[in-house]
Amino acid sequence: MKIAIVGGGISGVTAAWYLSKQHDVSLFEANDYIGGHTDTHQIDIAGKTWSVDTGFIVFNEYNYPNFSQLLRELEVDAFDTEMSFSVHNADTGLHYNATNLNKLFCQRKNLVNPNFYRMIRDIVRFYKQSPDILKQPNNTQTVGEYLKKHHYSDVFIHDHLIPMACALWSGPSVSLLEMPVRYLIAFMANHKMLSLTRRPQWRVVDGGSNQYINQFIKRFSGQIHHSSAVEKIQRIDNGVVVTVNGQEQSFDAIVLACHSDQALSILADSSYDEATVLGNIDYQKNHMQLHTDESVLPPNKAAWASWNVYVSPALQEKCTVSYHMNTLQKLEAPVEFVVSLNSAERVDPEKVLVERHYAHPVYNEKTMAAQQRWADISGQRQTYFCGAYWGWGFHEDGVRSALNVVQQINGKAE
């Protein structure tokens, strides 16, 4: 079959890699690079070039089995990293690093702070109590409703749980409180985050995440079209017509591996099901800056972690988190490389190296309902859908959804 794939992120790359083993595949990407949220930058400082990731950064073998298999097939190496987490509350001055007891109490006054001990007790209680929600399949509570019902403290909510969720999903605190609580707990349980021990070992791709993209490009047998935004898709009998840069091309099938809202916008003849499913998934835009301004990290260096969340009531409408790349990628650089989301007012513009805008799915009841309807639209009229938005929004979800599409297509082709 002659197949077009729209979107060169992890889902499009995975679909292209496996489909090209049996089919003639053309991959179309609107940007001048492929990779999507796999976005590695070459930064020259002090006579040396540093490969710094700004989008996809970490994975683990346990929760990312399909992505790990893809890396092995592409012969891409990875190494262990530290996944630590810190919070700095701008209004109260509270800051801590949850790595170990010494760093947890790096702000020594917390040794005699009753609110801090209340937070710790609530963390332990939440880890023990929250899995019970998974036994209630019909529970429709939001995170906010659940926390209120079980009388969790404000310090636990606003200085621990919500900042952690913010760092995971790049979403503002207001939307995370509206997330279905079963969704949050299922994710945390799946990733062994509800245990103080036996957590999976996190890893980073050696040389930067785009190493797997580079290996894919070298080995891919199909065609890659950069700077080729698909303008329109029209379904016809036994095929599809794709318009790119004003030119029409015909294919036997098409895989939409872009964001759901982008997919809907280019379907010239979208069905009712496509419109209702794809249209019910919202996105949160995030402004990313790669910079060397360490002032955005906690004021106490002992509190610096891999993921550093900045909490302020004035910033509830956006996620403000900074990733310390020297720690995550083990960069022994003469400067601190920091990736910050939505922190432009705190970052010295003279120290900014790269700026990007990323979009992340918003996880609410509408999104959950839409995710259940993948089979209603994928495989209809020679059109297939994949993307991380069909799962928790992470790399493994993108790979898994692409494999589902590959199975659909190859099953029909047999």
Automatic annotation (TrEMBL):
The keyword Cell membrane does not apply. Its cofactor is FAD. InterPro entries: Amino_oxidase, FAD/NAD-bd_sf, Flavin_amine_oxidase, Zeta_carotene_desat/Oxidored. One of its GO terms (molecular function) is oxidoreductase activity. It comes from the Bacteria. Keywords: Oxidoreductase. FAD binds at residues 11, 29-30, 230. Residues 10-301 form the Amine oxidase domain. This is Putative NAD/FAD-binding protein. It comes from Methylophaga aminisulfidivorans MP.
